[in-house]
Write a structure and sequence with these properties.
The N terminus is likely disordered. Strand 11 and strand 12 form a beta hairpin. The protein has two domains: about 170 residues, Dam replacing family, catalytic PD-(D/E)XK domain (PvuII Endonuclease, Chain A), CATH 3.40.210; about 70 residues, Arc Repressor Mutant, subunit A, CATH 1.10.10. Strands 3-4-5-7-8-11-12 form a seven-stranded mixed beta sheet. It has seven helices and 15 strands. With about 290 residues, it is an alpha+beta fold. The longest helix has 16 residues. The protein is globular and about 60 Å long.
Length: about 290
């Protein structure tokens, strides 16, 4: 399919069915994939990309937490946040990139982000990938804020003494520390995911917000181990194979096997897993 943007408006409609190439159906939320070029007619390349992507989110993205039709743009001086839902007050930080994201995302001040994670006040993360040649959105993922722990933040080197902000320390967000359950696709390869599916995936892991940061870290690590098995049905013994890995993360814990069983129980009690038989589990979330 030719992806070149032309005078015909390129768009994807969210429906109860997955969109199919060349056939658009009526749905409950419409996403236009192309940027509005005239909004950044007199800016440089970096500024253009920022204006295009921020404008696209403000005009197209719904709130994954409450389902509100749009998000409001925050003032530029709000630390570590770009958008806010007027319906539920959820905040979102936007990161955009021409092409795809790697294993790290460059973020703002390490101190600010660390404090917000510890206070359970960090924003949700929007990862928007775009194609500069066709000036449209390729993909969009949302990382809910409850998937952030101190382990997902990496301190960068302080700026040199000759820098304008000498000594300032930024941070990287380590996407490799976040399970697939914490990377919810809204658009994937220019195809939109049904809004109802996005909202369902969001609700599936909200129980993590009730956990303290340390407890949440254990749950997320076990979730990642389960995901690495690569199938919905698995056994306790298979998860035990990750004990050496978990022991390396928590070297002071001498009861890792017991901790694994405890985390599986919490995941089961919150509907993330189902108990099938003695020592047998099944994932309940959609792949």
């Amino acid at each position: 399919m030719d992806r070149t943007v032309n005078s015909v408006e390129q768009s994807v409609i969210l429906t109860s069915e997955w969109p199919t190439s060349g056939h658009l159906q009526q749905g409950d939320h419409r996403l236009k994939l192309e940027f509005q070029e005239d909004a950044a007619a007199y800016e440089g390349p970096t500024q253009k990309a920022r204006i295009w992507t921020e404008g696209w989110v403000a005009q197209n993205l719904f709130c994954p937490n409450c389902g509100a039709a749009s998000l409001g743009k925050l003032k530029n001086n709000v630390p570590a946040a770009d958008f806010r839902c007027e319906g539920c007050a959820e905040q979102f930080e936007l990161k955009s990139k021409n092409g795809g994201f790697g294993t790290r995302v460059v973020d703002g001040a390490f101190k600010t982000m660390r404090e917000r994670v510890l206070a359970n006040d960090n924003p949700n993360l929007l990862l928007l990938s775009y194609d500069l040649s066709t000036k449209d959105v390729r993909g969009l993922q949302i990382v809910p804020r409850h998937f952030f722990t101190l382990e997902t933040l990496e301190s960068r080197k302080p700026l040199s003494a000759s820098a304008r902000r000498a000594g300032w320390i930024g941070c990287n967000i380590l996407l490799g520390k976040i399970p697939e359950a914490g990377r919810i696709h809204v658009i994937r390869d220019r195809a939109a995911v049904p809004k109802a599916h996005v909202l369902d995936l969001w609700r599936k892991t909200l129980f993590l917000r009730e956990q303290a940061p340390a407890a949440r870290g254990w749950l997320i690590d076990v979730m990642m181990c389960v995901e690495q098995l690569g199938r919905p049905n698995f056994s306790l013994d298979e998860v035990y194979e990750f004990v050496p890995h978990l022991q390396s993360i928590y070297p002071e814990n001498r009861h890792v096997r017991e901790k694994v069983r405890q985390q599986l129980q919490v995941l089961r009690d919150n509907g993330y897993l189902e108990f099938e038989a003695r020592g047998r589990y099944r994932l309940t979330r959609s792949a």
